[in-house]
Design brief:
The complex is a heterodimer of chains A (238) and B (124).
Chain A: E1 2-7, H1 12-23, E2 27-32, H2 36-46, E3 51-55, H3 63-74, E4 76-82, H4 97-121, E5 126-131, H5 143-163, E6 167-174, H6 180-183, H7 187-195, H8 205-216, E7 227-230, H9 234-237
Parallel strand pairs in A: 1-2, 1-4, 2-3, 4-5, 5-6, 6-7
Chain B: E1 5-8, H1 18-34, E2 39-44, H2 45-48, H3 54-73, E3 81-86, H4 92-102, E4 111-113
Parallel strand pairs in B: 1-2, 2-3, 3-4
Helix pairs in contact in B: 1-3
The chains are: A alpha/beta (238), B alpha/beta (124).
């Protein structure tokens, strides 16, 4: 049995990725700091998929070892999706050092450590997919988030070069996605953001899950070190 | 025009240094912005190409993202924040001369890669 690790699996995008990879036949390990990851794994198991949860703080020193150990119990690790992320937005002039650090720790350092540890153990044909963001191209009030997600793009390329041809490492950079977080935005703010998206709508978690599934599939066997912007054309429109 | 602040990304880092180095960069660049100084963030071209050690790559690309976010945020107040990438053996005086030329509002948010090593590689 081949297994996949999905971090941030309790969130809307992570859950969609876990469901999509489970549907493709992978045993999935749902990793999250929130105990809700257990609900996601249980729901998948109820549907007949092989799934388990791993609830932990990904920034802890022993997190990569714990995740890889739990994944090994499910099967041969072949896919790692670094999806977990946080935001601590604020104007640069007032952004606290703590909020800057926290975002870098969760969004950049934790996935770097997990990816590097996983890559050392994964077999031929394995793949790592890092969830970056369109915000890596620059968003006001997100100096910390943009730094973390742009850093993750660099990490993606470095790992792709280092572990080729045994593994492939790619990134997905979502734009505005319809999640509980965007649903909580004031309607006028959301309207303004959507007006800048050529697709005329926010993306759905399934749009990201489908892209991840493609990158994890043999159809993407010649795609390595790339960043796929899944943003409805927003990155072209500016 | 106020004196340019030239921020140099450190290299030879460990994974444990990434958070500290990016935070140091953010705080230093923000101080310069608050002082109304144009900022040029200097990077190692090998790290930008992602062929340097992983922590150095993470920091270089992290700083590029930060530069772009600050430039976007600073359009109204008129901040100038740019990134300049040069290979290790590149002449320092020439680099600094390019930094002086880059430090204008019209260039804000840009990444200039000198030395020609970026040719044929993916656009960052």
């Amino acid at each position: 049995v081949k297994s996949a690790v999905i971090t941030g699996a309790a969130g809307a995008i992570g859950r969609a990725i876990a469901e999509r990879l489970a549907a493709s036949g992978l045993a999935v390990l749902c990793v999250d700091a929130s105990p809700a990851a257990t609900d996601v794994a249980s729901a998948l198991a109820d549907e007949g998929h092989r799934a388990a949860a791993c609830v932990l703080d990904l920034t802890s020193d022993d997190a990569p070892k714990a995740v890889l150990s739990a994944a090994a119990e499910l099967g041969d690790l072949s896919v790692v999706v670094n999806n977990a992320g946080i935001t601590r937005d604020g104007r640069a002039t007032s952004l606290s050092q703590g909020d800057f650090r926290a975002v870098i720790a969760v969004n950049l350092v934790a996935p770097l450590r997990l990816a590097e540890a996983a890559a050392e153990t994964m077999g031929e044909g394995g793949t790592i997919i890092n969830i970056s963001s369109r915000a890596a191209l620059g968003n006001p009030g997100q100096a910390n988030y943009a730094a973390s997600k742009s850093g993750l793009i660099g990490v993606t390329r470095a790992l792709a070069l280092r572990f080729a041809p045994r593994l492939r490492v790619n990134a997905v950079a979502p734009g505005l996605i319809d999640t509980p977080m965007t649903a909580a935005m004031p309607p006028k703010v959301l309207e303004k953001l959507v007006a800048r998206i050529p697709a005329g709508r926010p993306g759905k978690p399934a749009d990201i899950a489908d892209t991840v599934a493609y990158l994890a599939s043999p159809q993407a066997s010649y795609v390595n070190g790339q960043v796929l912007l899944v943003c409805g054309g927003r990155s072209v429109a500016g | 025009m106020s004196e340019i602040y030239l921020h140099e990304a450190r290299t030879g880092l460990d994974v444990a240094d990434v958070e500290e180095e990016l935070t140091r960069g953010f705080l230093a660049v923000r101080d310069a912005i608050v002082d109304d100084r144009p900022v040029v963030v200097c990077l190692d071209e090998q790290a930008v190409q992602a062929v340097a050690p992983l922590p150095d790559v993470a920091v270089a690309h992290g700083l590029i993202g930060m530069v772009r976010a600050l430039a976007t945020e600073g359009r109204k107040p008129g901040w100038t924040v740019v990134a300049l990438s040069v290979p290790e053996q590149f002449d320092r005086e020439e680099r600094d001369s390019w930094a002086q030329r880059l430090a204008f509002p019209a260039a804000t948010g840009s990444l200039l890669r000198l030395g020609g090593e970026h040719l044929g590689r993916v656009v960052v």
